[in-house]
């Protein structure tokens, strides 16, 4: 395994901003912003124009203070500030790996869950792009046996504001808004947007929080704001089959599937949701994914577990199962944690598996682990809610690629 170990930089941030009970305009759709503006007395004929202005300031310019909205009258700015907030989530810690990977521990208010919650968001810079791994839930209701989060209880869904907030925090910290400066020495792509790709692959099953994830991703891909191409947004699911068609129709993102096994008896153990939606049903939903084509392939994630799912027969069966689906396969060397019963496959085994898949015409990159130094330290963040979970590590290591690759 190629694990470039490096020293982490941990930067506790001073004076964090906290979300308050003041309602935020972040994470709302345009009609919802319009409703809020009507609620503070903005004239109906002005609502559309004011909504467009505010949208542009929040998402294209990255402002966090209504006073910076220079084309809005002073009086209206004061009224907006008296009624709403644009505050970001609180950044508890920021860790920077020597390879440039960044991880933020973010804190959100309780919102009825009894106490504030914390989640992690990870940025992975490469030469041609910067990928942000975003969380959708605090904890998870599913119990995948290779995943540490699966052993911890679900706390709550994240709101659309909190999902979008992860993107805004990353762009703030990287200086990825106009007139903002990238921190000296930060590892970022050599050209283009610093956050160019989003993967919904952090904590949680995004299709169990569909409405909030949908709203957040539609905001992320809105051409007058964050403007991320839907080809650069990937939603990863463990296989919530009934929601897969809606993901294509209503969100239009790229799709990734946590497959990890080619037989139902084994996948029942690794990804217990398989008992409800077995492999054949899952792959049928993939075959019919709206917009699927050779230019918009589905990514299948396959974690390499020694003597569990890594034989040549498994590789051949994988190829057979995926026949007819425009696909690529991310082979992920397993990264064990204390107490887990699985081990990572031997490197030769992973390469042999990859060769079989490649010869069948599928791209099957074996991902180089990134940010191992800060991942190793993640348990020490002492998050009140959850520790870094394997799935997020897998996300880092897989670094789902979009089809321009
Ligand atoms: S892999 Fe994903 S779906 Fe499975 S338990 Fe972990 S977070 Fe939940």
Describe this structure in words.
By secondary structure, this protein is an alpha/beta fold. It has 2 domains: 30-83, DNA polymerase, domain 1 (Orthogonal Bundle), CATH 1.10.150; 92-398, Aldolase class I (TIM Barrel), CATH 3.20.20.70. It is built from 12 helices and 12 strands. The chain has helices at 30-39, 44-60, 74-83, 160-174, 210-220, 244-251, 264-270, 279-287, 312-321, 347-359, 372-376, 390-398; strands at residues 9-11, 90-96, 102-108, 117-125, 130-134, 137-138, 156-157, 197-200, 233-237, 254-258, 298-304, 327-333. A 10-stranded mixed β-sheet has the order 1-2-3-4-5-8-9-10-11-12, sandwiched between helices. It has a two-stranded antiparallel ribbon with strand order 6-7. A hairpin with an 8-residue loop joins strand 3 and strand 4 (117-125). The model is unreliable at 1-20, 376-393 and 399-405 (pLDDT under 50). Bound molecules: iron/sulfur cluster. Iron/sulfur cluster binds next to loops. [4Fe-4S] cluster binds at residues 140, 144, 147.
């Amino acid at each position: 395994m190629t694990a470039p170990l490096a020293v982490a930089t941990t930067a506790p941030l001073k004076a964090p901003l906290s979300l308050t009970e003041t309602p935020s305009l972040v994470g709302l759709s345009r009609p919802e912003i319009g409703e809020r503006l009507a609620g503070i007395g903005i004239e109906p004929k002005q609502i559309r124009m004011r909504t467009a202005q505010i949208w542009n300031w929040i998402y294209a310019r990255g402002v966090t203070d209504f006073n910076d909205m220079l084309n809005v009258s002073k009086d209206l700015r004061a009224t907006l500030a008296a009624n709403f907030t644009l505050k970001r989530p609180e950044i508890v810690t920021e860790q920077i790996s020597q390879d440039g990977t960044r991880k933020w521990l973010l804190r959100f208010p309780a919102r009825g869950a009894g106490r504030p919650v914390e989640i992690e968001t990870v940025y992975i810079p490469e030469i041609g792009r910067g990928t942000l791994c975003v969380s959708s839930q605090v904890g998870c209701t599913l119990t995948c046996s290779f995943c540490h989060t699966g052993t911890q209880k679900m706390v709550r869904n994240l709101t659309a504001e909190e999902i979008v907030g992860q993107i805004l925090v990353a762009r703030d910290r990287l200086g990825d808004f106009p007139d903002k400066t990238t921190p000296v020495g930060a590892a970022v792509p050599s050209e283009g947007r610093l956050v160019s790709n989003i993967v919904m692959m952090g904590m949680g099953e995004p299709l169990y929080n569909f409405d909030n994830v949908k709203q957040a991703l539609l905001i992320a891909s809105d051409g007058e704001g964050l403007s991320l191409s839907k080809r650069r947004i990937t939603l990863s699911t463990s296989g919530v089959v009934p929601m897969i068609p809606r993901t294509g129709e209503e969100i239009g993102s790229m799709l990734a599937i946590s497959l990890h096994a080619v037989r139902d008896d084994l996948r029942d153990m690794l990804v217990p949701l398989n008992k409800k939606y077995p492999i054949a049903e899952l792959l049928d939903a993939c075959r019919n994914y709206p917009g699927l084509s050779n230019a918009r392939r589905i990514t299948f994630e396959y974690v390499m577990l020694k003597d569990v799912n890594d034989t040549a027969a498994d590789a051949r069966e994988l190829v057979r199962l995926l026949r007819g689906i425009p696909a690529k396969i991310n082979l992920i060397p397993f990264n064990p944690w204390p107490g887990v019963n699985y081990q990572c496959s031997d490197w030769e085994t992973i390469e042999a598996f990859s060769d079989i898949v490649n010869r069948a015409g599928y791209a099957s990159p074996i991902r180089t682990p990134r940010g191992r130094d800060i991942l190793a330290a993640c348990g020490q963040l002492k998050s009140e809610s959850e520790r870094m979970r394997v799935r997020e590590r897998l996300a880092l290591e897989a670094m789902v690629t979009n089809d321009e690759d």
